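Exercise (ungraded).
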Amino acid sequence: MLGRVNHVAIAVPDLASATTSYRTTLGATVTEPQALPEHGVTVVFVTLPNTKVELLEPLGDASPIAAFLAKNPSGGMHHICYEVEDIIAARDTLKASGARVLGDGEPKIGAHGKPVLFLHPKDFQGTLIELEQV
Amino acid sequence: MLGRVNHVAIAVPDLASATTSYRTTLGATVTEPQALPEHGVTVVFVTLPNTKVELLEPLGDASPIAAFLAKNPSGGMHHICYEVEDIIAARDTLKASGARVLGDGEPKIGAHGKPVLFLHPKDFQGTLIELEQV
């Protein structure tokens, strides 16, 4: 079921400072910030040869990463996103095995314009897993 | 400086159960466990098309992941490892920019037999970064 690691997402309290860390200190290519109000985040991509890291800053009053940052004020690794070929088939297989899909179980259109689902971290060793159909 | 994402490491309290999650529930290829007493962990690799995920279980009394698991009993994402071409040059550049290298600042031979260093999470938005020379 699992394909490529599409991205690793890191929640950060200050996107400008995080961009400087990755671009200047670590010498990586970092894209310009994109505000995604419908997802409650502003994002930049750290482009690496085999995958990408997304740095996420909360945007608006109901950001999905606000609670994580309240618990981890410096920031931290928030989720890992794997590609799947068929997200409905993946969901149905996972649900049949007892894994919990977050929300109403229906794929949403994610930050990359593709259907995504999130799996309950309690079912996967404390790791929030996003599945993205590519 | 940053090259490929070599791996994402997830600390888990029970490697057998985590292996079942990734192999059976998520349908990924998972290697057989390797005990690495000199690193204080037992590890399996989840092999993905573009990178790998390492699942780490504490081994012995002084495991470097014991404190993390005490704070996160279900487990969680522990660090991300980037490849660099020259770890001494990378270290010197990072130190000159004010970033802190953990330990005595000298590369150690990591779990893959290559020289590695860890960077202080407080300098990188709460993310523990490993650099591995490849």
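Further reading is listed at the end of the chapter. For now, observe: The mean pLDDT of chain A is 97. Strands of chain A lie at 5-11, 29-30, 34-36, 41-47, 52-58, 76-84, 108-109, 115-119, 129-133.
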